[in-house]
Amino acid sequence: MIKVSLLIPTLDQSGAEKQLTLLATSLPRDEFDVQVIALTRGGPYAEVLQQHDIPVTILKKRFKFDPLAYRALKKTLQQQQPDILHTWLFAANSYGRMAVKRLSSSQKTPRVIVSERCVDSWKSNWQHNVDRRLLPQTSLLVGNSQGVVDFYREKGVPDSILRVVPNGIVLPDTTVNEAVRSQLYQEHDIPPNARLIAFVGRLARQKRVEELLWALQLIRQMNGDIVLLVIGDGPERAKLEQLAHKYTVTPNVRFLGHRTDVDQLFPLFEVFQLASDFEGQSNSIMEAMSYGIPVVASDIPPNRELVVHGETGFLTSVGDSTGFAQFAERILADPQLANDLGNAARKRMQEEFSVDKMVEGYARLYREVLQ
């Protein structure tokens, strides 16, 4: 039996946390004994894990470097004695490798697999220095896209420890729930004949949601029935709401904030848009494609790994609001094109990005590092 401890900062309802939960609950129980450690807090996915009888330990980290949480992590690893410590995101990647480095020679030392989930342009020099200093404690560094792996190769991570395991997606039911539609339209004063374009994600600078607002200004000149749903929250929200007013698109946009029922909203969307200037592998694009929704996304390497231009959706240059508007209008104006793109997108998710493929990819790496 291979003992695996998965370490992540939180179990909030976000992309990395979702992938960790899918992995933990899907690894074969006859081969893997899985436990989960959250550095800071639990969250919705903690409940899911516990429902699957997967032990969850919360360390309650309070500061960027919290000595108490660090000692608690070392103690937890001593108790769990995993064969593999699989860490996710910068804080867990750092704490996990530092803790393993400081385990005494008499204690079991796990192999460490680090998951990087994004082209981390946001990292400062000190964070990259931390990553480099901890490379000796890194058995493998796994990106969820080739773009992520290429980024870390450029930062000095050797090819010998770099691997790619794409995210996994569960194909959902695409049936429209009319009660959900009615409630959404009523709650947010959406005209009954409105056609919905959507963005789902954190409202942060990298997402370039302002480009979508400007594209909306162009789209509504051609189609006044459009409403853009901005689903998510973050530091840019107030600025974006002001921009919507400045661009005079307030009647055509709704800021819904964080929603726990996004899976019920996806079937209502006719187009999905993502304008990010960097990503890892976008869970929101994958979810949209799994629902059979045509995607218009920025033409960056991770998005190219998901969206096949002209086949499952469209790609346009970063910052090209005109391109976002033109492709969205093209989809909205041609029901057959929208249907063909959506069907091809859903098929691509089913064949290339299943949860089974993701789980087997990590299981294979677990076996590899122990050999």
From TrEMBL:
Domain (Glycosyl transferase family): residue spans on this chain: 186-348
Limits of the Glycosyltransferase subfamily 4-like N-terminal domain: 14-169
One of the record's GO molecular function terms: glycosyltransferase activity
Alphabetized Gene3D superfamilies for the sequence: Glycogen Phosphorylase B
Keywords per UniProt: Glycosyltransferase, Transferase
SUPFAM superfamilies per UniProt: UDP-Glycosyltransferase/glycogen phosphorylase
Enzyme Commission number, as recorded: 2.4.-.-
Keyword Coiled coil among record annotations: no
Protein name as it appears in the record: Glycosyltransferase EpsD
Native species: Gimesia chilikensis
Name of the gene this protein is made from: epsD
